[in-house]
Design goal:
Length: about 375
């Protein structure tokens, strides 16, 4: 299993919601002079995404090489084809990930961008308007989608660039020998020493080289937690090891809090609620966020370790899909993100043991049946790895 290499020399900016993310991305695209790689799960067709689409076209028109990867399911089966056709007319190359499940059930859920090999973006924000759901047809949200990304310059950009260019090559026609050589090259780590800036690492999850890298990063950070461990995640259905990691930290006296997005999918909410009783029993605090669509996949531990990325706490993200997170050792970034999480906790509804005890037997039965169904399906999809 690949080791996690933290590299110094990173200039990082935390971007909260599309209000910060889209202007930063548009500015970087408009300043591009050489090449742009963009990979996303959802590339919608709304005002915000049309602005990104137009900016990519402007870049291509001035001679910048532009490459876009979108997921066939995430962006919509017909919509992704239409997007590809529009981008080609603009001079932008576009490849669609796993059309008709030719590569199995895996999806690319990553949200990555590298511009001129200098500026990178990573996080949980798709190319979709902040005030619209990503369903078809889209519906208006009461407030901007609650999500995060990170803009970065420095040593970690090279790691993202190597991964996203490899993804581009693999989606094209590539001889088997070249694929094996590419896999070998991706195992090589470039670590820069004694460079000023934040210490950070980029971690990926796939079904070949990095099967458990993101989960291992969470478990390692939880195992070292001493005072606080705050998480935000919209789709909560962790495997046994991650559940035990949360519980063990709480049993040591760590203030473990979960800010969970609810209200998007009824089945997902029932599955998440099936975990509440045991987690609460051991002191894990749970908050449900109802104010708007909470899409963030972030964590802060001991005001020192931070992660922002695309990986949910569910079987699809941890055991099946392609994901990407940034891990950061920087107290300033941790304090900034923790301040956002504290606001989220205040805006959310805390779930207590008494809340769970007041549930009707019908509700408890629904939770149990949803969990059983979910576990059964995920065990089939992950060949028994999801527990």
């Amino acid at each position: 299993m690949p080791r996690i290499d933290y590299q110094s020399g990173n200039q990082l900016q935390l971007l909260h919601t599309g209000e910060m993310f889209f202007p930063a991305l548009l500015k970087a695209i408009d300043l591009a002079t050489d090449e742009i790689y963009l990979e996303t799960y959802i590339f919608a067709n709304d005002q915000s995404s049309q602005e990104i689409e137009a900016a990519l076209g402007r870049a291509a028109s001035r001679g910048v090489r532009v490459y876009v990867i979108v997921d066939w399911i995430g962006s919509g089966r017909e919509q992704s084809i239409e997007l590809q056709q529009r981008l080609i007319l603009l001079g932008v190359e576009c490849r669609i990930f796993n059309v008709w499940f030719k590569r199995g059930l895996v999806r690319t859920h990553r949200k990555l961008c590298v511009i001129d090999q200098v500026i990178g973006f990573i996080g949980g924000i798709n190319i979709v308007d902040d005030l619209l759901t990503d369903h078809t047809p889209p519906q208006q949200l009461p407030f901007a989608r609650w999500d995060f990304a990170v803009e970065l310059e420095g040593s970690c950009v090279a790691t993202i660039y190597k991964e996203i260019t490899a993804q581009w090559l693999k989606l094209g026609k590539m001889p088997l020998l070249n694929r094996l050589l590419l896999a070998r090259d991706l195992r090589r780590h470039v670590v820069l020493k004694n460079v000023q800036g934040s210490s950070a690492a980029i971690v990926f999850r796939d079904n070949l080289r990095n099967r458990f890298t993101i989960q291992r990063a969470y478990l390692k950070a939880l195992g070292k937690a001493r005072t606080t461990a705050y998480f935000a995640n919209p789709y909560f259905a962790p495997g046994r090891r991650l559940r035990n990691g949360l519980i063990n930290a709480a049993k040591r006296g760590v203030d473990v809090r979960l800010l969970l997005g609810v209200g998007e999918f009824d089945l997902q909410d029932l599955v998440a609620q099936s975990y509440y009783s045991k987690l609460l029993k051991y002191g894990v605090k749970i908050y449900e966020y109802h104010r708007t669509h909470m899409h963030a996949k972030v964590a802060v531990i001991d005001q020192q370790w931070t992660t922002v990325g695309s990986s949910n706490f569910d079987g699809l993200s941890l055991f099946l899909n392609h994901e990407a997170n940034i891990l950061i050792n920087d107290p300033a970034i941790s304090r900034e993100l923790e301040a956002h999480l504290q606001v989220g906790f205040e805006q959310a509804i805390e779930i207590t043991a008494e809340t769970v005890e007041r549930q009707s037997w019908i509700q408890r039965l629904k939770n149990r049946l949803a969990y059983t169904l979910y576990r059964w399906v995920l065990q089939l999809l992950t060949f028994g790895e999801y527990r």
